[in-house]
């Protein structure tokens, strides 16, 4: 088990161990003013599980950003869309199973204003 900093846990209990998941994709899209086109994250060689996190920064009162994630599992193609323009919810985390040989990708589909989007995808396997 790898050790990760856990500031609250370190303060309260110096012997807290936390699993660190391998990051397979990390990208910062800074100062965007147009949609991000379809962007491939990974094409696994075996069925795989992922946690994808999306964090939006910018003036959330003057921008509108919606993300669309696409993947395929054993039941077929999937798409999941979500808005990231709520001041009290500027992020989202999605758990995904991707079939071997199929691509996990994302894009922003509706945007206005200037924003920065930070994407991190971790392997759960």
Question: Strand count, sense and closure of the main sheet?
Answer: 4 strands, antiparallel
Write down the overall geometry. globular
Task: Tell me the radius of gyration.
Answer: 16 Å
CATH 2nd-level architecture: Sandwich
Order of helices and strands: HEEEEEEEE
Q: What's the CATH H-level superfamily name?
A: Galactose-binding domain-like
Please tally the helical runs, counting DSSP H or I stretches of 4 or more residues: 1
Q: What would the average pLDDT be, to the nearest integer?
A: 83
Unreliable segments of 5+ consecutive residues: 1-13
**N- to C-terminal distance:** 14 Å
Strand order of the largest sheet: 1-8-3-6
CATH topology: Jelly Rolls
Name the beta content range. over 45%
CATH class annotation: Mainly Beta
* Number of beta strands: 8
Q: What level of helicity do the residues show?
A: under 10%
Structural class: mainly beta
**Structural domain count:** 1
Structure report:
- The chain has one helix and eight strands.
- It is mainly β and 125 residues long.
- The protein has one domain (21-123): Jelly Rolls.
- The strands form two sheets. The protein has a four-stranded antiparallel sheet with strand order 1-8-3-6, with no helix packed on it. It has a four-stranded antiparallel sheet with strand order 2-7-4-5, with no helix packed on it.
- Strand 4 (64-73) and strand 5 form a beta hairpin.
- The longest helix has 6 residues, at 7-12.
How would you summarize the topology of this molecule?
Elements: H1 7-12, E1 23-32, E2 39-42, E3 48-58, E4 64-73, E5 76-83, E6 91-98, E7 104-112, E8 115-123
Antiparallel strand pairs: 1-8, 2-7, 3-6, 3-8, 4-5, 4-7
């Amino acid at each position: 088990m790898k050790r990760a900093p856990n500031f609250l846990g370190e303060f309260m209990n110096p012997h807290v161990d936390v699993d660190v998941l391998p990051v397979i994709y990390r990208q910062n899209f800074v100062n965007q003013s147009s949609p991000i086109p379809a962007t491939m994250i990974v094409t696994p060689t075996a069925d795989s599980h992922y946690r994808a996190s999306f964090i939006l920064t910018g003036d959330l009162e003057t921008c509108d950003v919606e993300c669309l994630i696409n993947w395929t599992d054993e039941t077929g193609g999937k798409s999941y869309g979500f808005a990231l323009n709520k001041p009290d919810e500027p992020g989202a985390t999605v758990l995904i199973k991707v079939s071997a040989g199929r691509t996990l990708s994302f894009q922003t589909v509706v945007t206005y204003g200037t924003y920065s989007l930070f994407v991190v995808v971790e392997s759960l396997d």
